[in-house]
Amino acid sequence: MRLTTTALAALTALCVMIGVFWLSLSFFQSEEEAKARGRLSLYHSTVRSELERFSHLTYVLARDSHVIDTATGGPTGRLDRRLAAFAAQSGLDAIYLMRPDGMTIAASNAGRPGTFVGQDYSFRPYFQAAGAGLQGRFYGIGATTGLPGYFIADAVRDANGGVLGVIAIKLDLTDLEETWRRAGEQVLLANRDGVVLLSSDPDWRYRSLADLSADQRARIAQDRQFPGQDLAPLDWQPVEGARAMIDGVERIHLAASVAPHDWVLHYFADDSAAVTRSWLLTGLVMILAGAGFLVSQVRRTQRIGAALRRSEAEEAQLREANERLAVEIEERRTAERRLKRTQDELERASRLAALGQLAASVTHELGQPIAAMRNHLTAAEIGGQPAARIIPRITGIVDRMEGITRQLKFFARNDREEFGPVDLGAVVQAALALVEPNIDKVGVTTSLDAPGAPVLVRGNQLRLEQVLTNVLRNAVDAVEDCAERRIDITLGQGDRAGWVEVRDTGHGLGQARLDELQEPFVTTRESGRGMGLGLAISANIVKAHQGRFSADNLAQGGAMFRIEIPQEGMEEDLSAA
């Protein structure tokens, strides 16, 4: 028995040690990741700053009178000296002017070994982009000097907009690598093909993060982007979480996209310090736990001795205590039986309340399509419309009624619907089609202001149609007794959500607040004109979509209801904002 207890204690201590180690390791690694994110943000800002620092210079030079004069056939010597002065003052590798055919006619390095003058760069993507009216940007190894650089180019134009040539600059970004190396960091910058452009480790430069396809290699060869480089794959592999194996060592791995080229900045951080700190903390906890265990054992021995000395005197007290305990147990069992009966009664009351809510929801939700079906049949009977036109509409309404009965579980539990991309424009059109008989009967003028492109949100189309149908039906009822009967529907899209606004010229909300109107059986209409369930149902649906439902009185009269639904891919809950 004692051996079993000792083994159990040892096993418990081992489990505690493992638990403390992994918990502390997770905490310290999260700290290291937070530090790494800060460093990545710093280096990302530095790279962006370097790429944009001279982005305006080619635009300015393209409009310089000396550059335009040389591009139109003027002498090049004066421009060569001017460009050389600019390059020296700004720290650029080179500034050069090319004819429309790509031949360089003036450069800051004119008259020096490796000059760009006389070189044809028409094959370079930055030249082609500038000739097409864009600002050309490109990173590659220099075709003349063999040195890598970042190229920016703009077209030089005459007064009529004709292309006279292309002015380009070359920046040396290798200082970034030296900064990373001096800081002892592991950083690399890869282009959209996954080829490493800059790296704190020279052995990583011009390696590919993934195997390049034949088309990628053909394009790189055509652009002469990395001449003489085999672009072999880098020894690295992302693993689960924010981690990666590189050169056989596991590191924290974070990445950030660098505009405007879709480049990616990768940052690798060593978290061995987190492991060391976790072991130290685990050892400290085990030492404290051992000391506490020893103290508890000493006290336990003392308590056992005292208990043995008091055992005979306490025997009578124990019997009395047992008798009291038996009475308490019986009382507790009686209380538990009463509690069980009370719980059963509460469950029955809850089911009755749910049944009443379900019946009200069925009555309200099926009332709209049934009324629409009756209106279509009456219109067909009066107007003599052929069955071929009426049957599809009635079939659609029947499908909607079937969908409503399936959706009634929304009021019974909080399970989420199957959501997907939904076009709010299609939702509005479907809702308008459903309340069209009500609109025609009352004589309401409607307008729809919607963008040309779809407004995609994340949701369930049928449930969103329910919301719009309820709001539009309320708006029709609100303007029925007014001189001006108008409903304006506006559809739009923001940064985070798509939205619909419904404005009417009715009697407005009065003194009621939206949160009051969202309660079941609360309505601003006179008795007999509605049960007050529409907005309650709509509010629940919008909340289930993590959207926002708002309403207000308009200054000129009437009310405005606004529905906002998060866009596809957004995780934020707008209802909590």
UniProtKB/TrEMBL annotation:
It is a multi-pass membrane protein. SMART domains: HATPase_c (SM00387), HisKA (SM00388). Its EC number is 2.7.13.3. It catalyses: ATP + protein L-histidine = ADP + protein N-phospho-L-histidine. SUPFAM superfamilies: ATPase domain of HSP90 chaperone/DNA topoisomerase II/histidine kinase, Homodimeric domain of signal transducing histidine kinase, Sensory domain-like. Residues 361-569 form the Histidine kinase domain. Residues 304-352 form a coiled coil. One of its GO terms (molecular function) is ATP binding. It is found in: Cell membrane. This is histidine kinase. Keywords: ATP-binding, Cell membrane, Coiled coil, Kinase, Membrane, Nucleotide-binding, Phosphoprotein, Transferase, Transmembrane, Transmembrane helix, Two-component regulatory system. GO terms for cellular component: plasma membrane. The keyword Glycoprotein does not apply.
